[in-house]
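Weekly structure sync - notes
Attendees: PM, LS, DV (DV joined late)
Agenda: review two folding runs queued last week.

Item 1: First target. Sequence and C-alpha cells pasted below for the record.
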Amino acid sequence: MLFKARFHRGIIDGSITRTFRRWKRLQVTPGNRYRQPFGEIEVASAERVHERSITERDAELAGYGSRSDLLAELAKYREGTLYRIDFRFAGADRRVALRQKDDLSEADLDALLRRLDRLDRASSHGPWTRQALELIDRNPAVVSTVLAAQMGLDRSTFKADIRKLKESGLTESLEVGYRLSPRGKRLLERLRILEANRAKQPQQ
C-alpha cells in the first residue's frame, strides 16, 4: 500500500491518518507496519465500507479537500471491495538505522552468520550470500544486470536475493546499483577472517 507524493507531508505531520482503497482482497493487517518512500506507517484498522458512508471528515483525514474529491478519485477504481484504513506514521524505515549499526557484538555477528547460512541453504541456486557481499563490495554503484551476470543469475533472481540482504541491513540501494552498508562491511570483515582462519588450518 503506497501513497502518492502529495500525501507524504500530511502523513508525516499526522494530518493524514486515513485512506480508502478498492481491493479484491484485503492487503493490509492491523498492527503491521508498511514501508513507504518517506518511512513507515502502522495500520490501526481496516474495515469494509460503502461509499455512501464516507463523510467530509473522512475526506479530510484522507488528505482530500472535500468528500466529492475523494469520491472522484475512488471512481477511477471500480473493481473490488472498498476498505477504510486507519494508520499512523511510525517513523523512519527501521532498516536505515539498522544499516548504520556496525558496532556489532559477537552475538550480533553470530546471528547474522546464521541468517546468511539459512539463506544459502534455502536457495534453489546454491550458496550465494558471501559471493554477493564480496561482489557488491568490489562493485558499488554498478547496474544490477552486470552484477547478476557475474553471479550467473537472471536480474530478477539477483534482485530478490539482494532484497534479502537489505532486510538484514547489509546493503543499500543506490540510484544505480548497490553498496554495502557499514553493517554489511563489518559482517564481510568477519567472513573474511573466518575464511582466512580456515585456510590456516592443517589439511587432514
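Item 2: Second target, run right after the first with the same settings.
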Amino acid sequence: MTAACEKRVRKALAKDATGHDWHHIERVRRLAARIAKAEGADMFLVDLMALLHESADYKLIGKKTEAQALLETRNFLTKIGLDDTQAEEVVYVIGSQSFSKSGISGQKLDSRAGQCLQDADRLEAIGAIGIARCFMHAGVKGAPIHDPAIPPKTILHSAEYKQHKNTAINHFYEKLLKLKDLMNTKEGKKLAESRHTFMEQFLAEFLQEWGREI
C-alpha cells in the first residue's frame, strides 16, 4: 500500500520546481514519523497522510478543482485497499491541513494523526529549509525578493491568501513567522523553536544588509 502511494506521488511531483517535490515529501515523512512516535499517533496513517498531503494543493493540481483532486485520492485509496474509515480521515486531513484552510482561521484538525502531519508540514516551511523553499517558490512565481514599498498584509480569508501577490520577505511576516504558535503537538512545538529563531536571525541580517527594516 505504501509502495503504491510512493509510486503515485513520485510521478505526480517529478517535475516540481516550487519546493513541493519528492524530497519535500520525504522530509515531511521523517518529521511526521518523529512527531507521531512522540505523540503515540497511528504511524501508518500519519505516513499515508505525509505521502499524499500535496494531492489537492491548489498550487499543484493544475486545472483540476480541489474537489476533483480529493475524489481522485479517495478512489485511489479505496483501490489500493484502505478501509473506508481510514480513507475518509486521510482525505479529510489532505483537504483541511494547509495554512490557507486551517492556518488562517486557526481551526484545529479533528484528527490526531492529521495534527502530526500538519505540524511536520509546517516545520518544513520554517527554518533553513523553509527559507530555501520560500525563495525557490518566489522565483518560480516571478515574485520579487523584497520591496520596502510593499508592506506585509494581514490576510483574513483563504481566497485572499491564494490570490495575494507577494514578495518573498513579506511571506515570512504573513505566514512563516506565525507557524510556531500554530503547532498542535508538544513535539512539534519543541522542534519549531530553533527553526523560528533561525528565521528571525536571517531576517534581521537580511534587512540590515538591505539597509532598511520593515
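Discussion on item 2: Residues 169 and 198 are 14 Å apart (CA to CA).
Action: LS to circulate a short write-up before next sync.
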